[in-house]
Amino acid sequence: MAETHQSIGVDPAADHPATKQHKDRSDLPGDKDRLDKVEGLEVGVQTNRKDAREAYMRRIAQAARRTVGGVADAAELEQDRVRRLLEVFGPVIDRITLAATPDVAELAEHGTGPIDRALQGPAETAGLVLSQAIRDVAGDNEQLKRLLRGPVPATLDRMVQAGGRKPETIVDVAVSVLQAVPPVHPWVGDFTVQVIPHLRGFHETDPVKQHGWYQTIMSLASLLARVEIAAPFTQERLRGRAADYAGAYYHEVLWAVVTGTLADGDLSFIRGACNNLAAQFGRRLQRLSGGPDDEATETAHEIGKVLVKVNVVLSAEEYSAAAVDAFRPVIEPLGLDRLDVPVAPGDRHLLVVLDQVFNTATVALGDDDNLTGAFLHSVSGVVRATQRSHDRTAAAFFNAGIALLKATNRTDANQLTRREEAAWVRALLNLIGLRWALALNDDFAAALGPGDGGDCLVNLLGSLVSKGRVTIDQLWSNGLDDIVSITRAILAGRPIPGLDVARLDGLIEQFRRMRAVEPSPADPARLADAAGRLTDGLLTASGIDDKPADDKPAAVPFTAQSTAALVVRSFGHLADPEQPADQAFRSIVLPGVKNILAPYLTDLDDPIEILKRGYLTRSRSSKRQRDLALEAGPLVEVGLVTREEWDKIWAESRTQWDSMTSAFAAALG
Fold this sequence. Notes:
63% of the residues lie in helices and 0% in strands. It has helices at 49-74, 79-98, 102-109, 123-136, 141-149, 151-162, 167-178, 188-203, 211-230, 237-258, 271-287, 294-316, 321-327, 348-364, 370-386, 393-409, 419-440, 444-448, 453-465, 469-475, 480-492, 501-514, 524-542, 560-572, 581-588, 590-597, 607-614, 623-638, 643-652, 660-668.
C-alpha cells in the first residue's frame, strides 16, 4: 500500500513531509513566512537509445535499493518489518534491473518521450517506472503534462480493465506516481484536487475494507494536504477544497476506529489523521471572518487536545532508548528539570511533545502566549538537533522567530513590550537555525533548500539590514561581511530549489548600498565559520552577553547543549534587564511552558480509548446517531462548517469515474 504521511502543514511530516512547519505571515521587513519545500530533482534526457535504456533502468534500480537500504538503516530495532519490505521489494527490484517487461524497456528506450500506450507487467514495476519518469521531467512543464495525459492514466486504466487487481492496489500505484509530481507548477494544485476524488470514488468499489484500504485513504488525504500547503493554485477556491476533502478522509479513518470498524492490527498510521485534523481546526479558526465564537473555539480545543494526545501516545513508540538518551543532556540547560510536569523529563511522551507535537498544539489549539510559543519552538529545534534531524531542525528555529514577532505585534495585554530586545533574539534564532542546517546537511544546496537554512538566512539578513548602517558597521567584521558576500555568490551560482532568490537578491542590494560587498566563493565551511563568528557579534551587540571580549572563554562548541543554554539566556534577556537572565527566564517563560505541556502529558493510556472517549463530544448512543456522526464529521460538530456545507464536501470528495484517462485529461484542462 502507499506510504502515508503525517504532519502536513504543521510538521511536512504529515511528509514525513508530515514534517514541515506551519506558515505564519508577516509584512514587516525581513520576516517571511515559511513555505514547504520540494526536494530538488535533476532534469535530463538521454538521447542514445541503448545507453538511455541501460542508464534509465540503473537509476530506477538504484532508487529502489536506496529506499530499502534507507529503511534498513533507520529501523535497526524493527528487523521483522525490514525483512518484510525486502521480501516485497526484492523481486520488484530484480524485475526492474532486468527490464523484464517489453513496455518497461520501451519506456526506457524512448527516454521521457511522448508514448501514449499503457505499460504492461506488474503493477509495482509500472508504478516505479512511471514515478521515475515523472521525476526525470519534473522541471519540464509540457513533458510532465504529456506523461500525466498519456502513459500514467492509460496504465491505470489497463490495470482496471485487465481485472485481477484490487482497487486498493491500483489507487496505491496512482498515489505513488502523484507523489513524484513536484507541487511547483501553477496547475499542480488544481490538478491534484480534481483527480483525487475520482481515485477515491474508484477506491470505494473495493469490497474488502481492511487496514490497507484505510491506509490508502490516508495517502490520498496526505497528497491533498501537501498541495494545500505547498502548491500554487490557478483557482484559489480549490485550495479550500483540498482542505475540505482531506478533512473528510481523515474523519472517515478516525470514525472507523471510534466505531470499531477498524479494530485489529497496527493502527499507528492514524497518527497522521489526528495530527493533521487538529491542525485544520487551527487554520479554519484563524480564517473565520470576525473570529470564531467562544463555543466553536472551546469545542475545537477540546477535540483537538484529544487528537494531539492520541498522536503523542502512538508516536512515543517510535522513539528508541537511544533517542531518549540523546535528549537527556539538554533537559537541564533548557530548564525542563525545574518543571513539575506529570511525566519524568526523560520520558518518551515528553520527548514527543517537544519534538513534533508542540507545533500542532499551538497552531491548532489557539494558545495566545506567543512568547512561550517562541521558546517551545526553540526547544523543539534543540530536541531535533539531538536527533540529528537534517530537514526539520532549522524550521523550528525559524518558526520560533515568527512566534516572537507575533508576540511583539499584539495589541493586548499579552504583547511583548521589549521590541528592540525581541528583534535581536529573532535574529539570533534564525542564525542558530542556519548554523544547524549547515551542520546537519553535507550538501550545501540541501542545507539552504530542503534543510530550511535558506529561510533562516533570509530572515537573518532581513532583520539585520532593517536595523540600519550602525548595526551593519558594528557586525560587519564579525562574520556578517562573509555571510553577505557568500550569499551573493550563491545567487550567482547554480539554482537551489526552495531558496527565496528574489528576497535574497533584494537584501543583498540593500547591503550594497551601505557597504561594499566583495565577491566570495560559495563555500559552506566558510559560511558556517562566519555564522559562528556572527553569533558572538550578535550576543555582544544585543547585550545578551555583556562581558568584555578579553573576559570571554574560548569559542564554545556548537552542540545541542550549548544551543539550549543560548536559547535560555536569550529568552531571559526579554524580561526585566535588572534580573539575571536565568531568574528572568524562570519567571516569564517556565510557567507558560508548564501550562502548555501539562494537558498532553496526563492520562496517557490506550490511544484508541482516548479517541473513543473524546473524538466527538456529543452522545452517539444509537446506530442512527453514529451514522449521522460519520456523515456530519467534526467540522460540523465544532461549528466550523454547516451541515449543508459538509454534505457537499462529503459528496464531492468521492466522484464516480468513467476512466482514469478522461479524469486526468479533464483535470489538466
